[in-house]
Amino acid sequence: MAIFEYTTKLPYPREKVFAWFSRPGALPRLWAPYLGTVSQEPDMGLAVGSRAVLDVAAPGTMGTALAAATDLGARTLGLPARIGARIPWRAKHISLNPGHDFTDIMESGPLARWEHQHFFADDDHHTRPGTVMRDVVEFELPVLSRSPFNRARALAEKAFMRELNQVFRYRERMLRADLAFHENYASEPLVIAVAGASGVIGTQLCALLGGGGHRIIKLVRHRSEANGHDAVFWDPERGVLDPEQLRDVDAVVNLAGHTIGGRFTADTKEKILSSRVLGTELLAGALATLAADGKQRSYIVASGIGIYGAAPHTGIPVLPLDEDTAPGTDFLAEVCTAWEQACAPAAAAGVRVVNVRTGLVQTPAGGILAQMLPLYALGLGGPLGTAAWQSWIGLDDVVGIYAHALLTESLAGPVNAVAPYPVQSEEYARTLGKVLRRPARIPVPGFAPKLLLGSQGAAELAFSDQRVASTKIEASGYGFRQPELESALRHVLGHS
Asked: For the structural domain made of 2-182, what CATH number should be given?
């Protein structure tokens, strides 16, 4: 058996820190995306007997890349679940001393043994109340736990402890940033309805808001999942939604929409458009109906920088695109334009509407990074051209911007959710290669994206060239967690 310890000092009262751990969302916020996913949050919070399920990726760059590749394959083939790149980890809470400590163990999973004790103590060495948090992990590695070769076991345990140190550094960064966010955006607990809550962004947004004490109502598409309290049924394709079930909400966040990333067939294009416009119109109409009661509500709706078109720049130097830039004319630009226009009934009724024009989200859980990881892990990565601008954003920041938009009453209209420092494709490739410690010199042949995406999909996705400004969101008071690409990639890939 080996023991790993990690200590974190936080400038917040012990009661406040412990309360954060006791709320829904703590586990998804602390579970790094390169480790896998949280399939089930603790079903009884921190209470003894509470259980959670994690899907754990194999360690290292190759493990993350394998998980990304199989997830991409599952989505491409329309499979309903992940296909074997992860191992289930079933956790159980076995002790709780409220305000002071709790313990969880691994009931089944990839290790021979795991017990994680969480201790919280007052830190009296500051001018303001603080907390000393101590994590103590006792573990045994599989197979090696019975190995007669002590040196092999010691080397394996040392390597695993290095991985654990990386994991707990990630947890510390997330905990510090989330606690600071909630302190900066202190408010009475709100009631927030979220459509698209099970997606990559939606999962993290619900977790962030839940950690702040807000009540989340998820809009679900299966009646069996609806309970009228924290899950409400809707069917945007058929126009089914009871506005009365949203009567108590302070805000609605709409992230729903068919995945963009495959060939632009006629059927796919129809799904991309209708899944965004129909749902947005339905929610906008419901909020407009409810507006007669005089309650001030907000409607935060996803959009994309695709609204500017795939090739919006016409001169040199290439000037950043702001929210006043005219929409483009290609397919995705038309989709985003119709998407934002579908909010009109809510805005006309006095609902505060914010359209979040999201850039290229960086996470191994999906999007451009997940698509590129397998090639880079094999040492076959490289730039797609050299000069095209990529307006990226870290997962934590796009989630933070949605929460900021929801909690900032002075913010309205379209807002670009992109990092302050966009990069060109050659720099993106070089930075990703540096983070992964892999070469990034092999240019991607121009025909390759066309084979995967078709001509139109390649033109509007792979070959898009958009330098987008973050001026408005920064001026509204949002502070980026990872404003630079390298730090953002290191954070989500476990190479910090």
From this structure: 3.30.530.20
